[in-house]
Design brief:
GAIN_B; transmembrane helix; 26% helix; GPCR_2_secretin-like_CS; G protein-coupled receptor activity; ConA-like_dom_sf; 24% strand; 21 helices
Length: 1308
């Protein structure tokens, strides 16, 4: 960046308006490579986002709109000029980007699909070459992100420019922001620099300025007088422009009192020193706007320099003196010259005379804008003549030029007060097409097309030699040469374009050469002679020999062909603004008609002479002042389609469809009926067929309900192919973004077979078509016709058979009214038919082969079906039928079908097994991540509780719960971090994460299974069970089995882990998020699905057995001692989460209830850790007591006494125990027993005693399944008759149950 140069900031008074469409163009040149750079940023008025911007990183280009970012990789190289343009309108889902005149594809960095704002907000802040933000109301420049290089020609238009305008009209200036220094705030160290080595030639210019007229008599100047003064003054100025061989035509002049035109010039003048002049006696200030046509095109910078310098001088005309302010003179290149509609002034011998009568100086009550049109031609010092005319400009030709511009060094390129040198592009790296222009015309002008062969003796550039000859020969007779070009031999049949002969001359003279050349041009003749006389005049002038120095040129009479160019004929033109009946108009002339909706307004149309045509033709009319008459589709009903207006009707329909992306049933019916009418009354040529095809494509891509109109659309496309004439050769292909057709005329004698293929169906691009080739990668549809069909070709009226292929790239067209089988179309549709056949081609012995690529990759367990479109199904709406089609070959990406007939073919996919829609998928993903986050927090609390409070983990169920909680905590944490870790794209790290996630998933289910085993031992297999090192063995199984499985997978097939797109078959929720996981289907089903299914099957079986056992125990309990329903329900729910039975929902998520079951699955299993905390921490009395003992203080703190340390209790009075539910269990005694739940107080005894209780059922998977064993410490009681005792005095009391189903994890 230029030393001490900060930035350019758009001045507040030049703020960007509210734009519903726009074009931004800028030229940039990177000189130093930096990781991040900025072209411009436009912040939203609320300063929360970048409303519009262009940035880059390395050679990548980033386009920013409404906070969203699109990227084009490797497009901006170092040390080269690049012209970058972006266009947008509110109907677009993303902006279009053009680099060096060519449209480039951009990729969105987010998954949003639409640009929601309707317009670019006004009132933001715009900086060039740097990014900026606001903090506490102060603007801050983001350092390190500036453009280290040059920037030039930053311009903004308030409309979406077409690709042709962007690539061709490179010199033109913006209409919202011009490239001029005055509109920018910059410091002294950031002044623009000039690049005089580059140039851009252009022909149309607009001049805006403010001038003061001083009258010698001291009176004010009226607007009427001012326009005549300005006209003669500007006409004189045009003659002072010192550019060789340059003609400047003053096309239009508008004059109003200061401020009447609201130009930037008037604002500058009002604020400047011109106010001092304006207060002088006899001084009057005016705004002036003029349009110029420079012939031939000249360098923009030179025109601006010359005109600015001359216009800044004082001028005196008669009794008037004219003063301008240099800072208030603006000269811009225009795209085109608008028609002039004001009657021209009549030329007079002199300007209005001044008078001493003050009454004549009375101001005009209503000043009127004045436009002056003249054909005055200026050539340096040639006196200026003024003529009356109503005709206007234009013509264009295309040539390749090298363009350049002023640029500001570093991030900014130099502009002078206006664009002094135009566009800036490297002369070594870029050439663009631009448009050249012709002069204005007078009413007497006639035009002729001239084709001449000349012979040149001598050396030099033949183009310059011939042009010089023509100008010198014809210009003296007031004949102008337009659109001159040398033609090639292929375009000039009578003689080769260039023929060269060489020979030597005796002596020291150099070798001479003789060359022959063909050229064509248009001759503009200002004459009153008739056409034949004028042709003879041109013929005679061209036949004269020409010599200039050592060059001789000669044209033989027979080598000169001259033809008259006819005026544009009468034309009835249907538009949305109404029917306009244009009269016959001469070449290069403009006519006008009143608008239909508002007769006070005017429509204009020009008869245009194209550089590449020998005939004049009508240009598109200028209907900008006219309002719509055809405002909606319903207005089409009043228009009768004829052969003459068919194309106009199609243009109206296309415009209506672009305005409305949703068409209701009535509108669709109307449009399709009009299309059918066009086909019936018109001769369908390929161009007309292409328009119909594009309209149909737009309908297919709209959001309309096409179900009732599928057959109508198919019939319209079929009719286009059947009736098409003017084929180029034996075939023609028409393509649109959503469909394509190919028509092939068949030679029956040489027909063997025919293939048709389609590729490249990316959004926004037309499909590519090929014939008689084998399918290749990228082919989306392929059809092969057998040789047998030639026997079915009938001859009708001596017409050769025609085969028509159709391709439909939008599957939504083929909806079905009833879909009981829940199948959807999973391919594009391709069809083949024979025109002029007497009947349908069916029951073929040699089958038609159709290969179609799947839109969605087929999974192994999904079924596909080959079908064709039956027009008669579903009450005439049409539908898919499998009759006569068979599946031949199936892969995950392609299906090949064989059919015995010809029609529209497709492949259906069983959607009952397909992923859910994107909306539900997003919701499920959010639920899953939120649930896992909540579970992780509460699992952490559970692990800390049972780890730090030693008394809570004295029994086996507690230890099993602790291990399960650790496994689930690891599973949740790895799942939450997986997507973030996978974003690094490190292969080894991704494998490690996938293995870890796999391991924790398996350990979680293993501990769920071990919990079920422990519960089985506790409640079912009560007797004679002794397992030494019980928990140690459980730990080896719980942590070891998953380790063995994961290690085996790594050893056998390491690639089974890796980056994977999550899909529904793997029980994940977001099928578009990258995820490190098992990506091999075989490994997944063997090591995950089958393992989980086995655990769930075992746990479910044990769960049922335990429920039956509990039920039996409750039945055997005395009345009044059974537990309540609520307590039983809580126990069942607790066991359900402990055993992981909620995971079984995933295996049931099919069919109509799939979405509901997936929501249930996501909620229950992502919150499994939370439910474990609730049932086995929050609702357990002993856990809450331990929290109060160790975590609370004051009145909430419990003293550590009670039964937690009590091994025996002496009671004063003994009450007999309740009957034993289970027999005495000394046989299962284990020396290593440490159950905390084996010491409790019976709720059925009034005396405290030491008992051996049953295991706590609330804890198996989550908390309380214990193996019943004899307590190591037994109570010592006094002997009495009421207590059964042994001879040693030790009492083994019976096992009391609290109300049968003793879930003391809830009651304690």
């Amino acid at each position: 960046m230029q030393k001490d140069c900060k930035y350019w900031l758009l001045k507040k008074e030049h703020k960007i308006p509210d734009l519903k469409e726009l074009t931004v163009c800028v030229n940039i040149k990177r000189k130093i490579s930096n990781s991040h750079w900025t072209v411009f940023t436009y912040l939203h008025p609320d300063k929360t986002r970048i409303e519009l911007g262009m940035k880059g990183s390395g050679s990548d280009l980033h386009i920013i709109m409404f906070g969203r970012v699109w990227t084009k990789s490797s497009v901006v190289s170092l040390e080269n000029w690049h012209s970058v343009c972006m266009t947008w309108s509110k109907s677009m889902t993303e902006p279009k980007v053009y680099v060096n005149g060519s449209n480039v594809d951009i990729k969105a960095e987010s998954r949003e699909t639409a640009l929601y704002p309707d317009s670019v907000a006004t009132g933001g802040t715009l900086t060039l070459a740097v990014a900026h933000n606001f903090s506490n109301g102060e603007m801050n420049i983001e350092t390190g992100r500036e453009l280290k290089g040059s920037l030039s020609l930053f311009r903004v238009w308030k409309r979406e420019r077409s690709a042709e305008e962007i690539s061709g009209l490179t010199c033109t200036d913006g209409d919202v922001l011009h490239w001029e220094e005055q509109i920018w705030d910059n410091d002294m160290n950031c002044k623009p620099l000039r690049d005089s080595t580059q140039q851009c030639d252009w022909c149309y210019y607009e001049v805006k300025l403010v001038f003061i007229i001083f009258r010698e008599d001291g009176n004010k100047t009226s607007t009427q007088d001012a326009r005549e003064v300005a006209h003669q003054w500007l006409t004189h100025v045009m003659g002072e422009v010192h550019l060789w061989e340059t003609y400047i035509y003053l096309h239009k002049v508008m004059v109003q009192p200061l401020g009447g035109l609201h130009t930037r010039s008037s604002r500058n003048a009002e604020e400047g020193t011109m106010n001092l002049f304006a207060t002088s006696p006899g001084a009057s200030q005016f705004d002036c706007l003029a349009h110029l046509n420079v012939i031939p095109s000249a360098d923009v910078g030179k025109i601006q320099d010359e005109l600015s310098e001359i216009l800044a001088k004082r001028h005196k005309i008669d009794h008037y003196e004219i003063i301008t302010k240099p800072e208030a003179i603006f000269i811009y290149p225009l795209e085109d010259l608008s028609p002039d509609t004001t009657p021209p002034i009549t030329a007079t011998a002199s300007l209005p005379r001044t008078t001493e009568t003050l009454a004549t100086t009375t101001p005009q009550p209503m000043p009127v804008t004045t436009q002056i049109l003249t054909t005055a031609k200026t050539i340096r010092t040639t006196p200026i003549q003024m003529e009356t005319t109503t005709a206007a400009v234009v013509s264009s030709s295309t040539e390749t030029i090298t363009i350049s511009t002023p640029f500001t060094e570093t991030t900014l390129a130099k502009s002078s007060s206006t664009i002094k040198d135009t566009t800036v592009l490297s002369s070594t790296s870029l050439t663009l097409n631009t448009t050249t222009c012709s002069s204005t015309v007078s009413p007497e002008d006639s035009y002729f097309n001239v084709n001449v062969n000349v012979t040149i003796n001598g050396s030099g550039d033949p183009k310059n030699i011939i042009e010089t000859w023509l100008n010198e020969t014809l210009s003296r007779e007031r004949i102008s040469v337009l659109h001159f070009k040398l033609v090639t031999s292929s375009t000039h049949a009578r003689k080769r374009s260039v023929e060269t002969k060489s020979y030597k001359v005796v002596g020291k003279h150099p070798q001479l050469s003789e060359t022959s050349h063909s050229c064509v041009f248009h001759a503009q003749v200002k004459t009153s002679s008739n056409i034949v006389d004028t042709q003879n005049q041109i013929q005679g002038l061209l036949e004269q020999p020409y010599t200039s120095g050592s060059v001789c040129l000669n044209a033989q009479p027979q080598e000169i062909v001259i033809s008259y160019i006819e005026p544009c004929p009468k034309h009835n033109h249907h538009t949305r603004q109404g029917l306009f009946k244009w009269p016959q108009v001469g070449v290069q002339r403009i006519t006008s008609l009143p608008c239909k909706g508002n007769p006070e307004k005017t429509a204009y149309r020009e008869c245009f002479l194209d550089a590449n045509s020998n005939n004049a033709h009508w240009k598109s009319p200028d209907l900008g002042q006219c309002q719509f008459v055809v405002k909606s589709v319903s207005d089409l009903e009043d228009i009768i389609v004829t052969n003459d207006n068919a194309e106009d009707i199609l243009i109206i329909i296309k415009d209506l469809i672009h305005e409305n992306k949703y068409l209701d049933e009535y509108e669709l019916s109307t449009i399709l009926n009009k299309l059918a009418d066009v086909i019936n009354v018109s001769v369908i040529t390929p161009p007309l067929g292409g328009v119909i095809l594009n309209i149909t494509s737009d309908i297919m891509e709209s959001k309309s309900d096409l179900l009732p109109f599928t057959n109508s659309i198919l019939n319209i496309i079929e009719a286009v192919g059947d009736q098409m004439v003017g084929l180029n050769g034996n075939s023609v292909s028409l393509k649109a973004s959503a469909l394509a057709i190919s028509v092939v005329n068949i030679d029956q004698e040489n027909f063997h077979n025919l293939t048709f293929g389609v590729s490249s169906t990316n959004k926004g691009f037309n499909p590519e078509i090929y014939f008689n080739q084998e399918p290749f990668d990228g082919t989306v549809a392929f059809i092969s016709l057998p040789s047998e069909i030639q026997d079915r070709f009938p001859i009708v009226n001596d017409t050769s058979p025609r085969i028509q292929f159709q391709f439909y790239g939008v599957s939504t067209l083929f909806q079905t009214k009833n879909d009981p089988d829940r199948k959807k179309l999973n391919t594009y549709v391709v069809s083949a038919s024979v025109t002029n056949a007497t009947g349908p081609i069916e029951n073929l012995k040699e089958y038609v082969a159709v290969t179609l690529r799947h839109l969605t990759t087929k999974k192994k367990d999904q079924n596909v079906q080959c079908v064709y479109w039956d027009f008669n199904k579903n009450d005439g709406y049409g539908g898919w039928s499998p009759n006569g089609c068979w599946t031949y070959n199936i892969s995950k990406d392609y299906t090949t079908c064989l059919c015995d007939h010809m029609t529209h073919f497709g492949v259906l996919l069983d959607v009952s097994r397909t992923p859910i829609d994107e909306k539900n998928e997003r919701i499920l993903t959010i639920i899953t991540y939120m649930g896992c986050g909540v579970s992780s927090c509460f699992l952490g609390i559970t692990v800390l509780t049972y780890t730090l409070l030693e008394k809570l983990r004295r029994d086996y169920p507690s230890k099993i719960l602790l291990n399960l909680s650790i496994a689930l905590l690891g599973l949740n944490l790895v799942f939450l971090l997986n997507s973030w870790i996978s974003s690094f794209g490190i292969y080894g790290l991704c494998i490690a994460v996938a293995v870890t996630l796999h391991y924790f998933l398996l350990t979680s289910f293993t501990w769920m299974g071990l919990g079920a085993v422990n519960m089985y031992f506790a409640l079912v297999k009560v007797f004679n069970v002794y397992v030494p090192s019980y928990i140690l063995k459980f730990c080896l199984l719980g942590w070891g089995i998953p380790l063995i499985i994961c290690g085996t997978v790594l050893a056998v097939k390491k690639d089974a882990y890796g980056m994977n797109t999550m899909n529904d078959s793997q029980m994940t929720l977001d099928d578009s998020e990258m995820f490190c996981w098992v990506q091999n289907d075989v490994v997944f089903y063997m090591s995950v699905v089958s393992y989980i299914a086995f655990i769930l099957l075992c746990n479910g079986s044990i769960f049922l057995v335990v429920l039956i056992q509990i039920r039996n125990m409750q039945v055997n309990q005395p009345a009044g001692t059974r537990s309540g329903i609520w307590k039983d329900l809580r126990a069942v729910v607790s066991l359900t989460f402990l055993l992981g039975l909620t995971w079984s929902v995933a295996f049931l998520a099919w069919g109509p209830a799939k979405v509901f079951l997936l929501y249930l699955f996501s909620i229950l299993n992502s919150l499994q850790g939370f439910f474990i905390f609730v049932f086995h921490c929050l609702m357990k009395e002993n856990v809450r007591k331990q929290w109060r003992i160790h975590l609370c203080c004051g009145a909430f703190k419990l003293q550590e006494y009670s039964e937690w340390s009590q091994t025996a209790t002496v009671v004063p009075k003994h009450k007999p125990n309740p009957p034993n539910t289970f027999p005495f269990m000394a046989s299962v005694r284990s020396i290593k027993s440490n159950s905390t739940q084996s010491s409790t107080v019976s709720s059925e005894s009034s005396q405290r005693q030491v008992t051996i209780t049953r295991p706590d059922l609330g804890f198996v998977y989550e908390n309380s399944l214990v193996i019943p064993r004899a307590r190591a410490g037994l109570s010592v009681l006094p002997r009495d008759a009421s207590s059964p005792a042994t001879g040693s005095g030790l009492e083994f009391p019976s096992r009391p149950w609290k109300n049968g189903f003793n879930t003391d994890i809830y009651s304690k």
